[in-house]
Amino acid sequence: MEMENRNFGSYDVPPTLQELIRLKDELGGDDQFYLGLNFYLELTTLRYFNTPCDVVVFGSTGMDGIHYGFLTEFGTVDDLEQAPVVCVSPMNFDGPTKIIASDIKEFLSIALTDEELFYNTFATEEDYRAAKQRWKEDEESSPYGPTEEKIQRKEAIIRLIKERITLPHIENPYRHLDRLDQQRQERVAVKTQDLLGVIGEFEEGEVHIPYYVHKDEDLNIDELRQYMSKAPAVSKLAMVRDLQLNFVLWHEEKIREIVADSLNSLNLKDEVKRLHEYE
What we know:
8% strand; SMI1/KNR4 family protein; 2 domains
């Protein structure tokens, strides 16, 4: 199945996502798909200013711009079937992106039961369990809750998904996401303001020299251009993350040009195209 657009770039649509596309068609469209899986498929142009340029978007919740995608680690992931999955909550300006699954099958397993973990924050596991109980009670007492027919239809769709796709069993989704975050922080070569970080290695003799940027402080364009021209590759990519977090590159032409030039210097053509997805 071919999907030629800026979103997927040079990547093929992974087998599990192909199966989801077929399933949506068999179910009769977006609404029935959402009923079973709690998200919509989004395969082309859905991006926000703070969607990382190395994310291939594949789904959305349909609320507050929240969307899901494959993190390609700036093109170093060979196959999207094995790519980490992230949730981007664009209205969470300080930390919009977090890793929510090791791959798409793990994502689906959690999405069927605990998708609220993807875009909400809870201080403790007990807080999350209490919130789930409240939501359940509210739904049961609401006159606008799902009908018995709708509940049965949802259960039938979930059974169909599990028949078509072998999903891993996640014993405790809350703790699993917590472990994913810990593992991520242990692996990053350079930390970034969005806490996503950059995976990679420095060449012999290279060191990371931080360059601080913030949306509320003036940015010296000449200094930034000089930094990006001399910084190691991993440092450049970390700066790309920080710039996307702090500035709306769609409206900041000079900054966007510096980011695009830096990505082009690393032969990251797909990432450059995604920067211009809004055009």
